[in-house]
């Protein structure tokens, strides 16, 4: 990380650009064996607390179950084709990890995605480049809930097949990818109300509520 200043000079031989401060952030050498050796000395609880701190939480403020629920959000980054849905009240940090934690994940609004953007483009009748599932480890659909959301039924069918078999067909080819999919949405009613009167997926658009 560098602070660069511009200082004009009449002398053309002098560069006007000056590096004011320089903060190296790249590790020059990683002692992998030393890391593994030290890692073995951690208890399970210490390792959980270290992971909690790495995603920006103070572990002392969480119980064990709460910690594991937070760490559950990391699984789609490390397991291929792992699919996760999390519905809950607003402001509970559901999408924070997917927007801030890793450069290998992508957070998109649930209503913005299309089949060509997500999987592959069939522009001009020819197979185009592979979409987001071919580039990212994890794709998170934020603001996924909402009865009034417009939903493309074709996209639902392709996603259903991809999540079951990690494959999709567009045009003449059958393609596979390894991106995990995460769905985040806000609920309006309490768990007790949903258990008694409807079901946990009530907040999703109707076309996503599928028996499969």
């Amino acid at each position: 990380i560098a602070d660069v200043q511009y200082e004009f000079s009449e002398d053309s031989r002098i560069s006007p650009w000056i590096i004011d401060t320089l903060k190296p952030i790249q590790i020059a050498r990683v002692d992998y064996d030393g890391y593994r050796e030290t890692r073995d000395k951690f208890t399970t609880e210490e390792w959980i607390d270290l992971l909690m701190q790495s995603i920006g939480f103070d572990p002392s403020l969480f119980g064990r179950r709460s910690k594991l629920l937070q760490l559950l959000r990391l699984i789609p980054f490390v397991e291929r084709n792992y699919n996760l849905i999390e519905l809950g009240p607003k402001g509970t940090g559901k999408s924070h990890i997917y927007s801030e934690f890793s450069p290998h994940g992508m957070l998109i609004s649930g209503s913005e995605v299309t089949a060509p953007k997500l999987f592959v483009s069939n522009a001009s009748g020819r197979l185009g480049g592979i979409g987001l599932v071919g580039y990212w480890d994890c794709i998170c659909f934020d603001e996924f809930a909402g009865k009034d959301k417009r939903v493309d039924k074709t996209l639902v069918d392709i996603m259903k097949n991809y999540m079951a078999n990690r494959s999709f067909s567009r045009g003449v080819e059958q393609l596979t990818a390894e991106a995990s999919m995460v769905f985040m949405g806000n609920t309006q009613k309490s768990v007790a109300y949903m258990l008694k009167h409807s079901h946990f997926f009530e907040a999703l658009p109707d076309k996503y509520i599928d028996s499969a």
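The chain has a mean pLDDT of 84. Strands lie at 2-6, 17-22, 83-88, 105-109, 138-142, 167-170, 173-176, 180-186.
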